[in-house]
Amino acid sequence: MSLNRHARTALLSVTALSLAAIPAATAHFGGSAMAQGNVQTISASDKKQGAEAHPQLLQEFGGAMTGPQATYVEGVGKTIALQSGLGNARSDFTVTLLNSPVNNAFAIPGGYVYVTRQLTALMNNEAELAGVLGHEVGHVAARHAAKRQSAATRNSIIGALGTLLSGALLGNGALGQVGQKIFSTGSQLLTLKYSRGQETEADNLGVTYLQRAGYDPRAMSSVLQSLANQNALDASLKGTANQVPEWASTHPDPASRVRAALTRAGNTAGKTNRDIFLNGINGLTYGDDPAQGIVDGSKFTHPSFRLSFQAPNGFYLVNGTRSVAISGQSGKGELSTAPYSGNLTTYVNTVFAGLSNEQQIRPDAVQTTTINGIPAAYGTVRATSGGSQVDIVVFAYEWGPQQAFHFATISQAGQAALFDPMFRSMRRISATEAAAVKPRRLSVVTVRATDTLQSLAGRMAYTDKALERFLVLNGLTSSSRLTAGQKVKLVIY
Q1: Which CATH superfamily is domain 290-435 in?
Q2: What's the CATH number for 440-492?
Q3: Sheet architecture: strand order including 487-492
Q4: 162-165: long-range contacts at Cβ-Cβ below 8 A with a sequence spacing of 24 or more?
Q5: Which parts of the sequence belong to the LysM domain (predicted)?
Q6: How many Cα atoms sit within 13 Å of 153 on the Cβ side?
Q7: What sections of 89-195 are H helices per DSSP?
Q8: CA within 20 to 30 Å of 323's CA: 271, 295, 361, 404, which one?
Q9: b/e code 290-315 from CB counts within 10 Å (16+ = b)
Q10: Which of these, 169, 81, 172, 161, lies nearest to 129 by C-alpha position?
Q11: pLDDT of residue 83
Q12: pLDDT tens-digit profile of 70-89?
């Protein structure tokens, strides 16, 4: 969460509207155009609108990374994007490695292609990286965006934003939409869910692009399998069967597409460039960047803002670029910020007013208090959603003369108190605590003859499920055999 003093809601609204205006690619390349030797140049209109959206996307996804890892990813992305026929020169494309701790990749018209460092770290060879980026370019080439935009504009509350909140708690009524607005995250800004047919078409195009570039087309299947394994691990870590990580929420059910992608690839072989890839991403930041705050289990710490809080028992945290989501079976929440004029009561009422475009949500009263020496204020609204009553709470803290933070939570009626321990846990951390927050990073190591899966996993910078994390990170299973000289990834401090 790299928040500033600008209103998060206002920023996301502007971004969503700008993205909704981006047209789809001007031609459909389902493989036929390239086969006929026709290359479609990117239109000036697409370039202009892509260029306008690009800085907003960078801001929403933690910014562009620089350095050797970013340069390497850029080169691979331009090579695979050229296979689509959307441009006729490497300079036609802008490929960005995003400083984001979520598993995501996407492309927009104008030749802009993106992948997060977290998704890149999950891959195990260059062909997988090319396959993921080729899949995203395939969505643009097949004009899937045009079909999504019409759906996005029909939702007046969340626009093109995705949501972490399932309909199980809130239903599909007005309060369900309010909940979607509360818990929408920047990591899902660009895309709504694609249809199964669109996903299959993008998978197939990605495989085609791999073949044209000389890569092993089976890499599309292996990276989808890694995503499925990561989804299962995330669910296990969070203690929930609801596997809805960021990439999977906009690219549904990777596990079901593994076999189809493998069938499409056939027995064709090609280059994987595994060692080149591992050398290219060595040292990449893994997980949260301290500049955006760090999630450590159920604890969130932001060294720059010098704040920390603890999620309630049974809840897990997901750190976004502009907010921190708190999720559990009995409720949802988010830590964010908004413009602050120095009056907490006004601030709380303003946050409530921004939760819905279709109905007024305002507490009967705003209470003031002090939490760990921090001036605070809160309000509660009970409302009906889908035939059930829910409680919405906004709990705000004054962090400075012009800075405030707030939780927005929603739960079934009568259960709002389950968030009280979290509200009370908000505190300022010392300079020493802030300085102690360190990032995790990828380290590529060479396996020695004495190494085992367990010994290597023991070097991971985690105290929980270190072996499972190591296996998923490296595309291995518990029965995999290591060989001396083999390169593997570790996550270290």
Answers
A1: Mog1/PsbP, alpha/beta/alpha sandwich (3.40.1000.10)
A2: 3.10.350.10
A3: 285-286, 440-446, 487-492
A4: 162/187, 162/188, 162/189, 162/191, 162/192, 162/249, 162/250, 163/188, 164/188, 164/244, 164/249, 164/318, 164/325, 164/327, 164/332, 165/332
A5: 443-490
A6: 11
A7: 117-122, 126-141, 144-152, 167-170, 174-183
A8: 361
A9: bbbbbbeebebbbbebebbbbbbeeb
A10: 81
A11: 95
A12: 999 999 999 999 999 988 89
Minimal CA–CA distance to 409: which of 338, 353, 327, 301? 327
C-alpha–C-alpha distance, residues 274 and 487, integer Å: 9
Do the Cβ atoms of 488 and 475 come closer than 8 Å?
no
Token readout for 129 is 């990286």
Taking the mean position of all CA atoms in its chain, how far away is CA 288?
A: 11
Residues 477, 493: Cα–Cα separation, whole Å: 24
Closest C-alpha among 258, 155, 184 to residue 9: 184
CB 275 within 8 A of CB 418: no
Residue 181 pLDDT: 44
CA angle 1, 237, 243 (to 5 degrees): 80
Tokens of 344: 């907490």
How buried is 425 (Cβ within 10 angstroms: 0-12 exposed, 13-18 middle, 19+ buried)? Answer: middle
Nearest to 220 by CA among 203, 245, 232, 199: 203
- At 213, the amino acid letter reads A
Q: Report how far residue 61's alpha carbon sits from residue 59's, in angstroms, rounded to the nearest whole number.
A: 6
* Residues found in the chain: 493
Instruction: Tell me which residues of the chain have a pLDDT lower than 50.
Output: 4-38, 150-192, 242-250
Task: Give CA separation, 92 vs 64, 145, 424, 460, in Å.
Answer: 18, 20, 52, 40
**What's the pTM?**
0.78
Residue 34, both tokens:
């390239």
Q: What b/e string do you get for 120-129 counting C-beta neighbours within 10 Å, with b at 16 or more?
A: bbbbbbbbbb
| Sequence letter at residue 271 | K
Return the pLDDT at 286: 97
- Please check whether residue 108 is in contact with residue 22, taking contact to mean a CB–CB distance below 8 angstroms: yes
Parts of the chain belonging to CATH 3.40.1000.10: 290-435
Please enumerate in sequence order all residues whose Cβ is within 8 A of that of 344, keeping only pairs 6 or more positions apart, or say none.
366, 368, 375, 376, 377, 396, 398, 404
- CA gap 280, 73 in Å, rounded: 8
**pLDDT at res. 253:** 55
Sign of CA dihedral 40, 43, 47, 49: negative
Sign of the torsion angle spanned by Cα atoms 56, 342, 337, 400:
positive
Return the half-sphere exposure (C-beta side, CA atoms, 13 A cut-off) of residue 124.
23
Which 3 state secondary structure label does DSSP give 107?
strand
